Structures are given as C-alpha cells and as structure tokens.
Amino acid sequence: MTGWTTHLTAGTHLAPEDGTCLMEAVSSVTGDTWTDAPSSTHPLLAHLARLVNDAVSDERRDDLAAFIPDLIDTNNPDPSVHARLAVVCTSYALTVSDSPSLRRLRHSAERRIGELRRPRPDLPHLDVIRRWTFEHGTARRAVETSVAHCEKRGDDELIGLLAAASTVVPRRLTAG
User: Fold this and answer.
1) pLDDT computed for residue 173 by the predictor
2) What is the pLDDT of residue 77?
3) Is there a contact between 76 and 102 (Cβ–Cβ < 8 Å)?
4) Can you give the pLDDT at residue 132?
5) Domain coordinates in residue numbering, the chain
6) Distance (Å, whole) CA 109 – CA 102
7) Taking phi first (over 0 means left), then psi (-120 to 50 degrees means alpha), and beta for anything else, what does residue 97 get?
8) According to the model, what pLDDT value does residue 104 have?
9) Which among 125, 137, 89, 130 has a CA at the least distance from the CA of 112?
C-alpha cells in the first residue's frame, strides 16, 4: 500500500490544490518538485503512466495509486529499457487487438534490442542518433499506439498494460 489517500484526476495540474495525476503523486511521494515527470521515473514509463492516467475512467483512476511504488527509482540509464518497454507494451496490446501497426512497432523494438547488442565503435555518433531517434520516435509511438488499442477495450486492459510495463524496468539501486 502506498499510503496515498488523495483522489487522482486526469490531466496536468499546476499545484496539488488543482488536482493530482498519477505521476504528480509519484513526485509528491518522492519529495521531488511538483511535476508529472519526476526524475526518479524512467521517462517512457512516466509517459505511459500519464497516458493511462488520462485514458482510464474516473471511477477506476484511483486504482492507479497502487502503481506509485512501482514507478519510483525506475529511471535506469540502460539503453535497452526504451526498447523493452516498447516490446512489452505492444505485446500486451496485441493480446487485445491484432493490429498490423502494433506488430510493426513490436518488430522495430525487437530489432532495436538486437542493434544495442551490436554497437558501432567506429561510428559512435551513429549509435547516439539511432538511440535518440528510437527513444523519441518509435518507442513513444509503440507506447501511444498500445494505449490507444487498450483504451478501446476498457479500464482493465489499460491497467493491465501499466502493470505489464512496470515489471520491465529494472529498479535503480539507491544508496542506503
């Protein structure tokens, strides 16, 4: 249990008095500056959480508070995390919707994982460009498309998508 008792709402809020989305709740719990993109959460996982928060019904949104602990300390610098998130999201969405676009996005993410295993030391700038392009393009589209397909099936599928994705990101080891 997170101990979170405030009602979660859709959208971004300037201050807690205006409402709180899932990622703003994470920032509050971690003591981060009020934001829907807390530094302790992997950026693509945070993007997914915001999309699910806004797509789930008002009646089920508070169920998302259970994910707060799973979203903390996940900002892992491992370059494969974006690709693994894209694979798990598209794989999950394919269980609810057999979509050619989802299959293409999953294939692209799987290919990216393979590329990460074969870096180009002779062209390090190419690896940087490919990584940025994938992370801000294909990986984001994979997550967004997965949410859109799950949203058509309802809250249980959206919550299931977030649950599946939250298990993929390795936790950052914190000093303690």
Assistant:
1) 58
2) 86
3) no
4) 85
5) 16-71, 81-166
6) 11
7) beta
8) 97
9) 130
- Residue 108, CA distances (Å) to 42, 74, 103 in order: 20, 23, 9
Residue type (1 letter), 2: T
Task: Specify the amino acid at residue 124.
Answer: P
Q: What is the C-alpha separation between 26 and 74, in angstroms, rounded?
A: 12
Ordered mean pLDDT values, 10 residues apiece, the chain (176 residues): 73 89 95 93 97 98 96 91 96 96 96 83 78 90 98 97 94 58
What sign for the dihedral angle of Cα 121, 124, 128, 129?
A: negative
d(CA 88, CA 171): 17
Closest CA to 10 of 42, 47, 57: 57
Distant-in-sequence contacts of 62-65, Cβ < 8 A, 24+ apart: 62/7, 62/8, 63/155, 63/159, 64/8, 64/22, 64/159, 64/162, 65/2, 65/4, 65/8, 65/22, 65/25
Amino acid in the structure at residue 41: T
Question: Which two structure tokens, joined as six digits, stand for 143?
Answer: 């997550």
Show Cβ contacts of residue 1 under 8 Å, excluding neighbours closer than 6 positions. 66
* Per-residue confidence (pLDDT) for residue 87, from 0 to 100: 97
Q: Which residues contact residue 85 at a Cβ distance below 8 angstroms, ignoring those fewer than 6 apart?
A: 42, 44, 45, 48, 139, 142, 143, 165, 168, 169
> What's 172's DSSP letter?
P
Burial of 134 (0-12, 13-18, 19+ CB in 10 A): buried
